[in-house]
Amino acid sequence: MSTVTIVGAGLMGTAVAWPLADNGHEVRLVGTHLDAEIIASCLDRRYHPRLRRILPDSVQPFYIEQLAEALDGAEVIVSGVNSLGVHWIGRTLGPLLWPGATIIAVTKGLEATSGGMIRILPDVLREELPAGLQDKVTLAAIGGPCIAGELAGRRPTCVVFTSHDEPALARLRAVFSTGYYHIWLSTDVVGVEVCAALKNAYTVAVGLALGALERDGGVDQAGAGMHNLAAALFGVSAAEMTRLVTLMGGRPEKVFGLPGGSVCHLCRRAHSPIGDAAWPWTDLLTGSDRDGRRNAGRGLRRPPTGQSPAALGKAGDHRAPRTAATADALPGHHRGRARGDPL
């Protein structure tokens, strides 16, 4: 049995407590300064209000003020914050860490520097740690298709654990893997991280086809929809993801495996968490949080609060995050790109 401390009591951070608890581990769930109400509910009723589930018996909730106590003796630390909290968690954990500590993050996203360089979040986290510990701590991350509510419901889930430390990956899989939580391993940290971030943004772009269909009156009397447009958007999105992963030094096959390939399923879900859920992906790649505030280091524009890809497509507003190749497939945006060149 291991002791695992999860820092961040949101949906995904808490969801990984289920496979950990089912494996017999001691799980300590620490809420951030934003999670006080969640932790209060967990302590009072053992009930997580966002997941709408009773916590497993071996999960012990802690307030952020108890972080040092919760980290004492921990063999694995889970970073359960979103991309806006990566700098914070690095600075918060740093003074309490020790050489040989292992941190695995559920966070998905990328960060852009003021000079326009794109960085993966494990690199951002590492730079926030004390200089003397940066090369003495193992960092790992989780990618692949995983909806928190399904994981907490013990539905079959397949993910990728990635790290430069291959022996650590094997240890982590032994800690987390269950009959329903299936884990692949990869040392291609760039490929997994870039795909994990981009697939959600490109799913939003494909969702514009539904809005375009609604704008034009829906399926016509002969049954013609907008499948041609959706397929085109999907195709150029996959090609563009492949180019971006390659340019950043990742392996392009990740686009078509678990890290990036799940975009196919997300695009097929008419009411996916990426589709009509008021832009929950904004903390991944956009320049604003849910209140519209700008966040340094993120480069894509955020559409109006609460509008889905379908709504923007219906209005002819194509501000969903996509670059020129994807834009060319949208009505009125084709620029005569040469045949045979999908990008």
Write down the secondary-structure element order: EHHEHEEEHEHEEEHEHEHEHHHHHHH
User: Shape, please?
Assistant: globular
Supply the CATH architecture of the largest domain.
3-Layer(aba) Sandwich
CATH topology of the largest domain: Rossmann fold
Tell me, what is the CATH class of the largest domain? Alpha Beta
What is the number of helices?
15
Strand content: 5-15%
- State the total count of DSSP E strands: 12
What fraction, in percent, of the residue positions are helical? 25-40%
Main sheet specs: 8 strands, mixed
Distance between the termini: 50 Å
Oligomer: single chain
What is the average per-residue confidence, as pLDDT, rounded to a whole number?
82
How many domain units? 2
CATH-level-4 superfamily name of the largest domain: NAD(P)-binding Rossmann-like Domain
- Strand arrangement across the biggest beta sheet: 5-2-1-6-7-10-11-12
Q: What structural category do the secondary elements indicate? A: alpha/beta
Compute the CA-based radius of gyration: 21 Å
Low-confidence stretches: 270-306, 318-322, 334-343
